[in-house]
């Protein structure tokens, strides 16, 4: 029975509307390639039709090993159009992990960029029953051999450009499956549903105040929480997807200038890549508004200050894979603009308040779920709940039940609540350092370190000392022109800006180990510190 007052929420409706209302407007730019919304929608329907013709049915999984390319964007719509589930693989994962994921999710089809052929070939060799492999040969890519019997364009040729699709009968159906990186065990699969993807996309519109036709630069990997759901957001606004395979500092600046990019998302790795570009090679302040959504890890006040000095406006968000990306935003008050620059940066570095379509967010005692006082001092765990939270962990009812215990999703992140209702992360529970029998935040120490003019990045973990117990161990990355700065100078700087118990007792110089999305792998740093 059809209902006049109800329809399942799905972001798939966004592309149909944009193609109908703005068929001639540019949808995709990739190098010299440009396609309109009419052309993009036609290709999406061809892909959906071809997948159906190749036996993909409702509930099946289609995996993709793709960079930020038009094909990756098309898959975000075509795969769920046939009721299938999109599994976007991390292109930096090793072959064994990819093999586990393909086997675990039972992928029927794999779309893979030829640049990643060596890794995929090793992964396929570990599978008892490999999926159908479709090669994507991107002219902007790094080459590589095809592994399948069919290329992407040949697959599209099998499809019907007028393919008639229907939204899911139930908005609770899975739309995507994302795996979190495993550290000591296999990764966990996280299931997104159509309703969550739809509402998260609309939330982004509200948070950024998106006007129609934004020009969005893909510096964030589309495999990271499905690009924080921005493939659907930008499509809803009939914007322009400017594809970029690698978010290198100078390439980002060039794309912003050339295409007059209005919006982009950035992890700390991208922000640091921009700051690492020498001043003489930067384009100077842009002559048009550029908005940056910063997330994945809290940017230091120094990073916020540096990016905004280039004329870009940062919106700081906090989130996690289980929330489809951002779950909180440091919603900005115009009157804060009159505050001193350093104070503005400090305010902007806070994680903020709940996203518009998230039902609840609180900082509470992890055992009793009683909210902590909003005193800016008491530490509690961040809890969230609402329609944009994941459906659950794939094949793991027990893990899902534990994560949702008490009717809230347990994030594992520790924060304080300020009197104005804005939260500020202090650490992951496992990253707290106990100093003089008191829990201390590694993030606070890192924030001070990043204020040193010679330091580009910093991470702090606990190091065991037989006499003192846990002591802070700092790992720092110096700016290219700061080779002569030593540990003594850095420790003295910290003594001047923080409590003496928090001052690092050890400073280690070198690159920081990171995930493919730019998060520092502190478990590796802890292991190193314990060996010292």
Automatic annotation (TrEMBL):
Pfam families: AMP-binding, AMP-binding_C. Residues 16-394 form the AMP-dependent synthetase/ligase domain. GO terms for biological process: fatty acid metabolic process. Gene3D superfamilies: 3.30.300.30, N-terminal domain of ligase-like. The keyword Metal-binding does not apply. InterPro entries: AMP-bd_C, AMP-bd_C_sf, AMP-dep_synth/lig_dom, ANL_N_sf. This is Acyl-CoA synthase. It comes from Nitrococcus mobilis Nb-231.
């Amino acid at each position: 029975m059809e209902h006049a007052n109800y329809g399942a929420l799905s972001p798939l409706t966004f592309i149909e509307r944009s193609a109908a209302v703005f068929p001639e407007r540019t949808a995709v730019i990739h190098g010299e390639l440009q396609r309109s919304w009419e052309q993009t929608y036609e290709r999406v329907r061809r892909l959906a039709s071809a997948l159906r013709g190749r036996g993909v049915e409702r509930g099946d999984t289609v995996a993709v090993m793709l960079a930020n390319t038009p094909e990756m964007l098309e898959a975000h719509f075509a795969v769920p159009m046939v009721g299938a589930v999109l599994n976007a693989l991390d292109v930096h994962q090793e072959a064994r992990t990819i093999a586990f994921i393909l086997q675990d999710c039972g992928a029927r089809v794999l779309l893979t960029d030829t640049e990643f052929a060596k890794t995929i070939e090793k992964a396929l060799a570990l599978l008892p029953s490999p999926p159908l492999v479709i090669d994507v040969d991107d002219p902007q890519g790094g080459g590589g051999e095809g592994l399948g019997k069919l290329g992407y364009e040949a697959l599209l040729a099998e499809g019907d450009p007028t393919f008639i699709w229907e939204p899911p009968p139930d908005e609770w159906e899975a739309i995507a499956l994302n795996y979190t990186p495993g550290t000591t065990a296999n990764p966990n699969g996280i299931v997104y549903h159509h309703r969550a993807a739809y509402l998260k996309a609309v939330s982004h519109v509200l948070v950024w105040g998106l006007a129609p036709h934004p020009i969005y630069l893909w510096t964030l990997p589309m495999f990271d929480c499905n690009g924080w759901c921005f493939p659907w957001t930008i499509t809803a606004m009939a914007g322009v997807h400017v594809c970029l395979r690698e978010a290198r500092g100078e390439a980002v600046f060039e794309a912003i200038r050339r295409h007059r990019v209005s919006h982009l998302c950035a992890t700390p790795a991208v922000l640091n890549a921009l700051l690492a570009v020498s001043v003489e090679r930067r384009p100077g302040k842009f002559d048009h508004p550029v908005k940056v959504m910063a997330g994945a890890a809290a940017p230091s006040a120094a990073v916020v200050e540096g990016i905004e000095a280039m004329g870009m406006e940062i919106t700081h968000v906090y989130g996690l894979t289980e929330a489809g990306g951002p779950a909180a935003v440091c919603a900005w008050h115009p009157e804060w603009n009159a505050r001193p620059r350093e104070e503005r940066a400090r305010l902007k570095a806070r994680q903020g308040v709940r996203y518009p379509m998230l039902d609840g967010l609180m900082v509470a005692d992890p055992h009793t779920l009683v909210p902590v006082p909003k005193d800016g001092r008491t530490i509690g765990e961040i809890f969230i709940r609402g329609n944009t939270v994941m459906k659950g962990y794939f094949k793991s009812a027990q893990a899902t039940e534990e994560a949702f215990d008490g009717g809230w999703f347990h994030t594992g992140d520790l924060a304080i609540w300020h009197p104005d209702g804005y939260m500020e992360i202090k650490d992951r529970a496992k990253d707290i350092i106990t100093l003089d029998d008191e829990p201390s935040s590694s993030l606070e120490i890192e924030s001070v370190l990043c204020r040193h003019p010679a330091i580009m990045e910093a991470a702090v973990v606990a190091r065991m000392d037989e006499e003192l117990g846990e002591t802070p161990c700092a790992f720092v990355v110096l700016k290219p022109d700061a080779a002569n700065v030593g540990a003594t100078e850095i420790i003295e700087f910290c003594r001047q800006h923080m409590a003496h118990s928090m001052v690092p007792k050890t400073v280690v110089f070198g690159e920081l180990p990171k995930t493919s999305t730019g998060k520092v792998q502190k478990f590796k740093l802890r292991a190193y510190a314990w060996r010292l």
